[in-house]
């Protein structure tokens, strides 16, 4: 069982927006602005999409955005494209004992 | 541009030690710009962080794996390595090496930035007799 809770799957049509939630606790997501999000296509390595809750690395489309409220972080993808179909994982710093926790992953299907 | 490449045996027997190496190219481990990490993913499952190392040898480990894990660095070869002892079938996974920027701020914090910006392609390790 993963430390962070994500929905197993979400779906949307091209052009629509979707949001993936990532629920943790006051020991991880709620205490630190150190949430990151990763996109993983089948058979490929994960790719960093969002870091420090809402920052985008160079080269990542501005269709991807992140936010946080309390113990829940969210990844929003606007203007869905077929290439966005992938698994998405959230990750958070969890303090000086546990350090790093991941969510169980969400499969995004573009209909 | 920094690139990471994992290498090591694809098959390990139960109770033995899994050993993997990550070779860093396009940059120097000794630059101190990054922390270096291992992350694994069992087939069809999610990601699990294993641990971090800095070029100085400073480490952080996942407490659930700490008793079985050793991460080391060889700056002369620009490599860092993972050893996982007493493996079982549950340790079957794709093992990734990854990097996190070295971070420091005005509050006095210094250490990894706690996100993984570069990843290797991963290597599948199967634990089976």
Report the strand count of chain A: 9
- Please tell me the overall pLDDT of chain B: 96
Over all CA atoms, what is the radius of gyration of chain B?
14 Å
- Coarse shape of chain B: globular
Which spans of chain B of ≥5 residues are poorly predicted at pLDDT below 50? Answer: none
Beta-strand share of residues of chain B: over 45%
Sequence of secondary-structure elements of chain A: EEEEEEEHEE
Helix and strand pattern of chain B: EEEEEEEEEEEE
Strand content of chain A: 35-45%
Radius of gyration of chain A: 13 Å
Task: Give the second-level CATH assignment, the architecture of chain A.
Answer: Sandwich
| CATH level 1 name of chain A | Mainly Beta
CATH topology of chain A: Immunoglobulin-like
**Percent helix of chain A:** under 10%
Let me know the largest β-sheet of chain A: 6 strands, mixed
Largest beta-sheet characterization of chain B: 8 strands, mixed
Notes on the structure:
The complex is a heterodimer of chains A (111) and B (129). With 111 residues, chain A is mainly beta. Chain A is built from one helix and nine strands; from the N terminus they run βββββββαββ. Helix content of chain A is 4%, strand content 43%. In chain A, a hairpin with a 6-residue loop joins strand 3 and strand 4 (47-50). The longest helix of chain A has 4 residues, at 95-98. Chain A starts with 8 loop residues before the first strand and ends with a strand. The mean pLDDT of chain A is 96. In chain B, strands 2, 4, 5, 6, 9, 10, 11 and 12 form an eight-stranded mixed β-sheet that branches. Chain B starts with a strand and ends with a strand. The model of chain B has no long low-confidence stretch (mean pLDDT 96). Chain A binds chain B through residues 2, 32, 34, 36, 38, 44-48, 51-52, 57, 89, 91, 93, 97-105, and chain B through 46-49, 52, 60, 62-63, 96, 113-117, 119-122.
């Amino acid at each position: 069982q993963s430390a962070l809770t994500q929905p197993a799957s979400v779906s949307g049509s091209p052009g629509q927006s979707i949001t993936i939630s990532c629920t943790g606790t006051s020991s991880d997501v709620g205490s630190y602005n150190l949430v990151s999000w990763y996109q993983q296509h089948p058979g490929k390595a994960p790719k960093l999409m969002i870091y420090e809750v809402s920052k985008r690395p160079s080269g990542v489309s501005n269709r991807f955005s992140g936010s946080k409220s309390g113990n829940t972080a969210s990844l929003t993808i606007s203007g869905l494209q077929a290439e966005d179909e992938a698994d998405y994982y959230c990750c958070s710093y969890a303090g000086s004992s546990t350090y790093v926790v991941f969510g169980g992953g969400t499969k995004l299907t573009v209909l | 541009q920094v690139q990471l490449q994992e290498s090591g045996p694809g098959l390990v027997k139960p109770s033995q030690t899994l050993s993997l190496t990550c070779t860093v190219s396009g940059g120097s481990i000794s630059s101190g710009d990054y922390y270096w990490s291992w992350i694994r993913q069992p087939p069809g499952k999610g990601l699990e962080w294993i641990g971090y190392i800095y070029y100085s040898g400073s480490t952080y480990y996942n407490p659930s794996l700490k008793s079985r894990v050793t991460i080391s660095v060889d700056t002369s070869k620009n490599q860092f390595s993972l050893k996982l002892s007493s493996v079982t079938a549950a340790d079957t996974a794709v093992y990734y090496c990854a990097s996190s920027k070295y971070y420091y701020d005005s509050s006095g914090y210094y250490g990894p930035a706690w996100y993984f910006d570069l990843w290797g392609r991963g290597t599948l390790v199967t634990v089976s007799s």
